[in-house]
Amino acid sequence: MAEFEKIVQKIDDFVWGIPLIVLILSCGILLTIRLRGVQLRKLGLALKYMVKEEEGGQGEVSSFGALCTALSATIGTGNIVGVATAIAAGGPGALFWMEVAAFFGMATKYCEGLLAVKYRVKDQNGKMLGGPFYYIENGMGSKWKWLGKIFAIFGVLVGLMGIGTFTQINSITSAVNNFFDPESKNVLEILGNEYTIAQVIAGLVITVLAALIIIGGIKSIAKVSEIFIPFMVVIYVSCCLMIIFTNITSVPAAIAEIIKSAFGVKAVAGGALGAMMVSMQKGIARGIFSNEAGLGSAPIAAAAAKTNEPVRQGLVTMTGTFIDTIVVCTMTGLTIVMSGCLTENSSLQGVEITNAAFCIGLPFPEKVSSFLIMLCLIFFAFTTILGWNYYSERCLSYLTGSNKVAVIVFRVLYIAAVFIGPYMTVAAVWGIADIFNGLMAIPNIIALIALSGVTAKETKEYFNKIK
Length: 467
Prior knowledge:
Layout: H1 2-15, H2 18-34, H3 38-41, H4 43-51, H5 63-74, H6 77-90, H7 93-118, E1 121-122, E2 128-129, H8 132-140, H9 145-161, H10 166-180, E3 187-190, E4 193-196, H11 197-214, H12 217-246, H13 251-262, H14 272-291, H15 298-302, H16 310-339, H17 341-344, H18 351-361, H19 366-400, H20 404-420, H21 426-450, H22 452-466
Antiparallel strand pairs: 1-2, 3-4
């Protein structure tokens, strides 16, 4: 397993090297310029559209339901575990680069939502289908269909073997184990390895619940997401704000440490650039993992929204990145840096880091703090499992022409991946997720850049119309 982890790490470093980081940021910067900073100018309107339904819009679910489905896939382990692993690997400065990626990512996400509605199609059952594969094929032309298929292939893999399954269930079972059996006293032997009873039971329960909801499709997933996502975001952000306000005098020092680390100021002479690149790489990689701007996943959900206005849905889709990274990830990162938990114990991994920060910062008994972080992670990660099943199924349907047998087989494989997820190691799990993230982003970003003129035109016409 150690050798396998080394191979995964090498591939991960190659995929998430400087070229891909430059490509993702360049796309966001280009779109920000062409749209004249739409993420700043129209954020207020976007937040208004987020909760106000459009009259007479065509689609399967409300715009808010589509956003919650997208958020169910984005607000998950990336916010609780991903931020922690980014800071552990790249230093506090990784949080700064997550924010930079998120700012430009909001413009990227806006374009994804707009293009998803503009180029969506209606199938024989009256369902609205859309996503990067459709705006590549219908927007760029049929000669680019192969690029859409490449995206769809990576979309299936990233759900099945990355974001949707292994990382989520692994984080859930780790959190449950840390709470109920932190010293791993009650264990079972499975295939020569020991796992705690808490891990095994949690894995089985989540697998069964996921299977029951996945059968219901997008409407079932949207209903669950509309209930859990707003509720859990409020609870989680409230906990983080409590930590920040009860330790308010530590905030300036924490922000200063984040900025210094982001530019390698603390590194030894000659190592500043190297430290900055590591911080940038880990921050952007985890930022993309968390808010998925540029990956092309959110437009798959956006295409199902009840709307007739592509720009309107683009604005709603854009709020997903704002909520996910600018709000939730910032809260997580600040609590970790302020707590100093990594300084005291550098051997902490994944959810253990955020858990330690909550235990140090919250004015509650340690058990209560651990329970809160476990509860938030379980619900966030569980809804991510559901959201990514829908994304991957839509990618598979595009590849197979909505073949029902293929979808049923995929669902079985997806649930099987959730089932075996608890028995994968943390390093291997996050490495695999990063790799597929990067590969999935490439064809989508090519399409966003190619169609940036269409996006700019649609945006200008819409805002002229509503003046």
